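User: Hi! I have a protein structure encoded as tokens and I'd like to know what sequence might fold into it. I'm fairly new to this, so please keep things simple.
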């Protein structure tokens, strides 16, 4: 395999005399990086000889996030190990104070380890995969109640443990351990994107989930990781990237076997991306197809780790799309039914539904019930923080501007911007 090799503080494009040959020229390296970016669904990334030459200088510039993703995927090493120095210094992250735990103390940003690709030492018993899975499963359950800034460091540390164990197990144990590691990375990426609103970091973490899924040869986990990267592109309104990643996710799901629920979730993800990009007609068609898939059912079971989707969750997607499409009465009816059907453990989703119901009332020129729904959402956020739910509330507050001087809006502002809420939101 061709590699960049660290040489002091710089990076050289060299011919490695070891077991993995390097690139014969700077142009060859630039070409393979550009091709690999396209294969990973990164559009518009092109690296030239001049950029490679800069990497070979005494003080190579820190690569952009997409370039770092390609280098990590291509070479199997962290960029620091290739000779690059992060501008924020060793052991720190680009937003060192970005995570704040419930204690108020900063949580250091933790660099993700590279997923090992082959066994070099066997020292662990076969039971290690079961033990690792037990903790992974516990993290999955804790996600629905534990504060994300508290759970996230524990999940990342668990991923580090998995990467350390992976080279130390037998080939028979490795797929099961790798699958649990992939789930751990997937959970970390979900927390980073949905709870902490860190899409760039989530992209890198989900790439690790995809790598671990490959080690496990688990196509459904691979499909889930790819679909979550499509979420990130869709929310950034990059439709081309979102569609391309969904095509890849569906290709992996066909290797499944995927359950009806899994296929419906893929439709729902794509519908969310289309909605974010303004294509509500396409989104409603996808949701209708998902409803038909669920009604038909299938003989295959849904993986236990896919605990974030159900027919009720699909209806929540539908209500949001109806809202964005301007189908206000239908959206109100759908979302009220969802609110009634949500189970007690779906507190995070409840804040999103309440936010959408508030938006429905704003669209129907009803500021008082809109403020009441926002108040209920704030009550829920005080118990279970969810950045995506807070985003919905902020969107509703912006649309309430025409009623700025109404008492219900002023009362809402007093609640929304009190000391505790504003400090909590800014910390997170």
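Assistant: Happy to help. Inverse folding works backwards from shape to sequence: for each of the 428 positions I chose a residue that suits the local structure. Here it is:
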């Amino acid at each position: 395999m061709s590699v960049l090799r660290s040489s002091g503080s710089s990076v050289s494009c060299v011919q490695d005399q070891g077991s993995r040959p390097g690139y014969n020229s700077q142009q060859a390296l630039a070409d393979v990086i550009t091709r690999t970016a396209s294969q990973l669904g990164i559009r518009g990334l092109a690296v030239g000889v001049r950029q490679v030459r800069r990497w070979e200088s005494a003080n190579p510039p820190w690569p952009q996030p997409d370039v770092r993703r390609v280098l990590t995927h291509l070479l199997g090493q962290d960029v620091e190990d290739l000779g690059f120095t992060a501008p924020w210094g060793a052991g720190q992250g680009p937003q060192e104070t970005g995570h704040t735990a419930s204690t108020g103390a900063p949580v250091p940003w933790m660099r993700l380890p590279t997923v090992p690709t082959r066994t070099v030492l066997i020292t662990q018993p076969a039971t290690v995969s079961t033990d690792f899975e037990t903790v992974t499963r516990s993290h999955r359950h804790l996600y629905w109640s534990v504060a994300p800034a508290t759970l996230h460091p524990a999940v990342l540390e668990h991923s580090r443990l998995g990467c350390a164990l992976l080279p130390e197990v037998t080939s028979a144990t490795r797929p099961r351990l790798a699958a649990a590691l992939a789930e751990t990375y997937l959970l970390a990426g979900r927390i980073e994107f949905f709870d902490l609103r860190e899409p760039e970091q989530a992209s890198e973490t989900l790439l690790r989930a995809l790598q671990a899924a490959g080690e496990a040869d688990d196509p459904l986990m691979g499909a889930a990781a790819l679909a979550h990267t499509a979420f990130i592109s869709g929310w950034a309104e990059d439709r081309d990237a979102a569609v391309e990643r969904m095509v890849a996710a569906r290709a992996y799901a066909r290797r499944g076997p995927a359950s009806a629920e899994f296929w419906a979730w893929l439709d729902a993800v794509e519908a969310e991306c289309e909605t974010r990009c303004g294509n509500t007609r396409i989104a409603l068609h996808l949701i209708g197809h998902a409803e038909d898939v669920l009604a038909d059912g299938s003989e295959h079971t849904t993986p236990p780790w896919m605990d974030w989707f159900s027919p009720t969750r699909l209806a929540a997607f539908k209500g949001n799309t109806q809202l964005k499409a301007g189908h206000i009465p239908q959206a109100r009816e759908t979302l009220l039914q969802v609110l009634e059907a949500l189970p007690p453990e779906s507190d995070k989703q409840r804040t999103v539904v309440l936010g959408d119901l508030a938006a429905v009332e704003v669209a129907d020129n009803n500021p008082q019930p809109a403020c009441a729904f926002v108040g209920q959402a704030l009550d829920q956020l005080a118990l279970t923080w969810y950045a995506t739910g807070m985003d919905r509330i902020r969107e509703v507050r912006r649309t309430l501007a025409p009623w700025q001087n109404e008492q219900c809006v002023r009362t809402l502002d007093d609640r929304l911007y009190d000391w505790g809420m504003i400090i909590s939101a800014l910390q997170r």
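A useful reference point when you look it over: Residues 5-81 form one domain. Feel free to ask if any position seems puzzling.
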